[in-house]
Amino acid sequence: MTFLRRPTWFAVALTIAGIALFVRLGVWQLDRASEKDELLRRFAAGAAAGVEDFGKVADTPPLDRYPRLDVRGSFVSGRYYLLDDQTHAGQVGVHVYVPFSPASAGSYLLVDLGFLPKERGANPRLPPLPAGETHVRGLYVPPPGVGIRMGGDSLPRQHGAEKTMVYVDLGEIGADLGHTLYPRVLLLDADPASIYARDWTPGFMPPARHRAYAFQWFTFALAAVVIFVLLHRKRR
């Protein structure tokens, strides 16, 4: 003889839907943890790798890794793009992006100079860029994710050498520059002599936290089963 009362179709459907939702959310969190593990691996492998030829990966960068490049050329003067609302070591500031013109190349390369904290709530004063031919070295990576676009950068409506962004859109920056950009950005190597902070460990939720959330969702699925059984068991 079964120990459960006959449940209603609504109770069965609600329980199954809840279990399916919780399991799906748990699997999604595990997938996110795997993505973060892979991203951290790519950064670590790129930082330890040798320098590659920029011309071979500029237009078609490899999808499974972040090449380390040494690019010769010159900075485009009078253009700064500040990615706002960034944090580093507990400080709020900006990431400073500037266009770089590689030698014998048609497109510009967008270079992330690093992080600078804000000064009394205002954007920091930026040091001048090196003039003439120089070279830049760093990791060639996709631009940071956009997420939900609330409002937009409105770059064309800003005037002056410094323009503030809320996300990095290479198409919009290229249109503002009137010049095409390569499909990735260059994260410059750390330099003790520079005022820019260049800690390129991605500032996202660590994989371990995603796995903890996955365990939480799977626990909710189990709890739904337990609640269903307790509500429908026969009382003596």
List the helices and strands and how they pair.
Blueprint: H1 9-48, E1 51-52, H2 54-57, E2 68-75, E3 80-88, E4 91-102, E5 108-117, E6 134-141, E7 162-165, H3 170-177, E8 181-188, H4 207-232
Helix pairs in contact: 1-4
Q: What strand order characterises the main sheet?
A: 2-4-5-8-6
Instruction: Give the ordered list of helices and strands.
Output: HEHEEEEEEHEH
* Sequence stretches where pLDDT stays below 50 over 5 or more residues: none
Radius of gyration: 25 Å
Question: Based on DSSP secondary structure assignment, what is the total number of beta strands?
Answer: 8
Distance between the termini: 13 Å
- The proportion of residues in beta strands is 25-35%
What is the count of DSSP helices, taking H or I runs of 4+ residues? 4
Could you give a short account of the major beta sheet?
A: 5 strands, mixed, barrel
Structural class, from secondary structure content? alpha/beta
- Average pLDDT: 86
Global shape: elongated
Helical coverage, percent range:
25-40%
Describe this entry's structure for a reader.
It is a single chain. Helix content is 33%, strand content 26%. It is built from four helices and eight strands, in the order αβαββββββαβα. It has a five-stranded mixed beta barrel with strand order 2-4-5-8-6. α1 runs antiparallel to α4 (207-232). The radius of gyration is 25 Å and the shape is elongated. The two termini are 13 Å apart.
Brief digest:
By secondary structure, the protein is an alpha/beta fold. 33% of the residues lie in helices and 26% in strands.
